[in-house]
């Protein structure tokens, strides 16, 4: 199959495209810029799977399923994530991995392979690849690996709604762990009962001063409150 999103190339069944920005499941994460992902796998179904799994984001997804076009694809564009099939027909795995590292120095490399072995896992570990996933794999496993790799590089951010909800959940969980009622926390913090309720439900936001008082009432540092929030 031809590589997707190639300038001047004939249309392919899997194309890189800018999609409408939508929150990912349960987290309200949005990409914070044009994220480009390259899928290198001689099985065309993997390219389709990646596109379907990451649908709903503004990711630009390029797919190469012809091993003869791998070199050109790697040199044509810079990518944030490279999903690489470790065993490609007619190519030496270690040489392809080295080529990916040389041409995509800033990319997180996620290895997928139907032929896992101790030697290949060791080689990928030494190469500091981001993840090593064996086929067949659950789509959520790959999706989480991609999302985590982008999060650690600051390429994803939380929506304001998701931030409110996660802070509210952190306050509620800590309060319950201390066996405090909302009324008791309100007394400790001098924050009104109704306002605290709205905060826990993620329906309102709070100033740093208010969050600081809540953190004191919960006997934790303000930093600990934010540590439970997905970056």
* Rg (C-alpha, Å): 22 Å
Low-confidence stretches: 1-27
Question: Whole-Å distance between the termini?
Answer: 37 Å
Mean pLDDT: 85
How many helical elements? 10
- The proportion of residues in beta strands is 5-15%
The top level CATH class name of the largest domain: Alpha Beta
Briefly note the CATH topology name of the largest domain.
Rossmann fold
CATH superfamily name of the largest domain? Response regulator
Order of helices and strands: EEHEHEHEHEHEHHHHH
Itemize the secondary structure elements and their pairings.
Blueprint: E1 29-31, E2 35-40, H1 44-53, E3 59-64, H2 70-76, E4 81-85, H3 93-103, E5 108-113, H4 118-126, E6 131-134, H5 139-152, E7 156-158, H6 160-177, H7 182-189, H8 193-200, H9 208-217, H10 222-227
Parallel strand pairs: 2-3, 2-4, 4-5, 5-6
Antiparallel strand pairs: 1-7
Main traits of this protein?
2 domains; two-stranded antiparallel sheet; Rossmann fold; alpha/beta; 231 residues; 434 Repressor (Amino-terminal Domain); 44% helix
Could you please describe the fold and organization of this structure?
This protein is an alpha/beta fold. The chain folds into 2 domains: 29-158, Rossmann fold; 160-227, Orthogonal Bundle (434 Repressor (Amino-terminal Domain)). It has helices spanning 44-53, 70-76, 93-103, 118-126, 139-152, 160-177, 182-189, 193-200, 208-217, 222-227; strands spanning 29-31, 35-40, 59-64, 81-85, 108-113, 131-134, 156-158. Strands 3-2-4-5-6 form a 5-stranded parallel sheet, sandwiched between helices. Strands 1-7 form a two-stranded antiparallel ribbon. The two termini are 37 Å apart. The relative contact order is 0.12.
């Amino acid at each position: 199959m031809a590589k997707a999103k190639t300038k001047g190339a004939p249309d392919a069944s899997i194309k890189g495209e800018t999609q409408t920005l939508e929150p990912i499941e349960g987290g309200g994460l949005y990409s914070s810029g044009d994220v480009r992902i390259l899928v290198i796998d001689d099985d065309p179904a993997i390219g389709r799977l990646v596109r379907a799994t990451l649908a709903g984001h503004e990711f630009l997804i390029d797919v190469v399923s012809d091993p003869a076009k791998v070199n050109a694809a790697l040199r044509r564009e810079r990518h944030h994530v490279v999903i690489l099939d470790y065993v490609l027909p007619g190519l030496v795995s270690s040489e392809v991995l080295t080529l990916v590292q040389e041409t995509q120095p800033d990319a997180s490399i996620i290895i997928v392979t139907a032929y896992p072995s101790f030697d290949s896992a060791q080689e990928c570990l030494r190469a500091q690849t981001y993840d090593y996933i064996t086929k067949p794999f659950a789509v959520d496993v790959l999706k989480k690996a991609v999302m985590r790799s982008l999060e650690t590089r600051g390429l994803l951010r939380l929506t304001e709604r998701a931030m409110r909800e996660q802070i509210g959940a952190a306050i509620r969980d800590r309060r319950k762990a201390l066996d405090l009622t909302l009324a008791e926390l309100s007394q400790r913090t001098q924050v009104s009962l109704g306002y605290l309720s709205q905060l826990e439900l993620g329906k309102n936001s709070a100033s740093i001063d208010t969050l600081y008082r809540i953190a004191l009432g919960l006997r934790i540092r303000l930093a600990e409150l934010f540590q439970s929030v997905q970056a």
